[in-house]
């Protein structure tokens, strides 16, 4: 999503795409070019086979046929194929054992999920998000996710859902403020809470400071999600920029704040500015309790070449 034009693009539940984020970016750019033939509105979200067909028609690399082990290896690795085969056999075994108890079987499989994800290679299932700011204060955000293990076929997660996985605003009518946000976690409760959009709107309207906005909105979504999803978890990464000129050119950015709020055991972040010689990378960790009431927080404030970091 581009904060200056509000251009947005997304793909979901799509196979055979080498880099889905490139397809999403191409959709966002096309949406700025006006109507299609016969006055049709350009799509901003494509799913399933339609996403693959659109990508292929626009010169983006896709699989030429049904993906098979040993073929299209740029899409399938030995490790990911082993994971897929493992979960496929587990689900087929569960359905064969209790074909008339789909609800109970589903609940049992969710209760056993921590055991199923005991190995390190199975436990990595997080979203990757990126927020970029240029020297004029314009901001853009992207989010990409492979989804959770054993998800329902056709499910579209939080990363691709409008206003939920990411949001960006570089509206010059706001008083010197630009903000971008990306979200990760067990997506359904985050989608219901429009977490990315709500975090950005709270800050843009000068209601609360960035840390409080991320903490309060994530905690609210987390507590609501716990009512139906015991394993509900999530995290927010947000960038807030101050000192943006209302003219076409920006004289100088006063400050930039990076904020992370997370209700997970770990949350990885990294950032780089033109004042840093190399990226700063850290893994935030906390001990989660069953009835969590606290959200882990991290922030770094950049005032030109001065950086202040805080973790709570």
UniProtKB/TrEMBL annotation:
GO terms for biological process: protein maturation. GO terms for molecular function: threonine-type endopeptidase activity. The record marks 126-127 as: Cleavage. It comes from the Eukaryota. GO terms for cellular component: cytoplasm. The active site is at 127 (nucleophile). CDD domains: Taspase1_like. It holds the Pfam family Asparaginase_2. Transmembrane segments: none annotated. Heterotetramer of two alpha and two beta chains arranged as a dimer of alpha/beta heterodimers. This is Uncharacterized protein. The lineage of its organism: Eukaryota, Viridiplantae, Streptophyta, Embryophyta, Tracheophyta.
């Amino acid at each position: 999503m581009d904060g200056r034009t509000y251009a947005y693009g997304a793909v979901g539940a799509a196979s055979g795409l080498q880099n889905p984020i490139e397809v999403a970016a191409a959709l966002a750019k096309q949406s700025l070019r006006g109507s299609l033939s016969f006055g049709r509105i350009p799509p901003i979200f494509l799913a399933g086979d339609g996403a693959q067909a659109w990508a292929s028609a626009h010169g983006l690399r896709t699989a030429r046929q049904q993906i098979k082990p040993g073929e299209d290896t740029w899409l399938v690795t030995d490790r990911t194929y082993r994971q897929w085969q493992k979960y496929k056999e587990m689900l087929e075994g569960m359905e064969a054992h209790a074909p008339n108890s789909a609800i109970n079987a589903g609940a049992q499989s969710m209760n056993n999920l921590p055991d199923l994800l005991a190995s390190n290679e199975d436990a990595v299932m997080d979203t990757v998000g990126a927020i970029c700011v240029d020297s004029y204060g314009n901001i853009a955000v992207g989010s990409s996710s492979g989804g959770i293990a054993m998800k329902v076929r056709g499910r579209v997660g939080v990363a691709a859902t409008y206003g939920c996985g990411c949001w960006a605003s570089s509206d010059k009518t706001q008083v010197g403020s630009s903000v971008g946000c990306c979200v990760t976690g067990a997506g359904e409760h985050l989608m219901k809470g429009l977490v990315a959009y709500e975090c950005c709107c709270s800050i843009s309207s000068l209601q609360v400071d960035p840390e409080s906005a991320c903490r309060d909105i994530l905690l609210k979504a987390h507590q609501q999600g716990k009512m139906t999803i015991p394993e509900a978890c999530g995290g927010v990464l947000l960038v807030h920029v101050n000192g943006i000129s209302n003219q076409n050119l920006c004289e100088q950015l006063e400050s930039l704040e990076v904020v992370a709020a997370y209700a997970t055991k770990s949350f990885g972040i990294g950032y780089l500015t033109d004042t840093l010689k190399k990226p700063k990378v850290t893994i935030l960790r906390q001990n989660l309790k069953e009835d969590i009431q606290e959200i882990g927080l991290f922030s770094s404030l950049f005032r030109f070449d001065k950086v202040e970091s805080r973790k709570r």
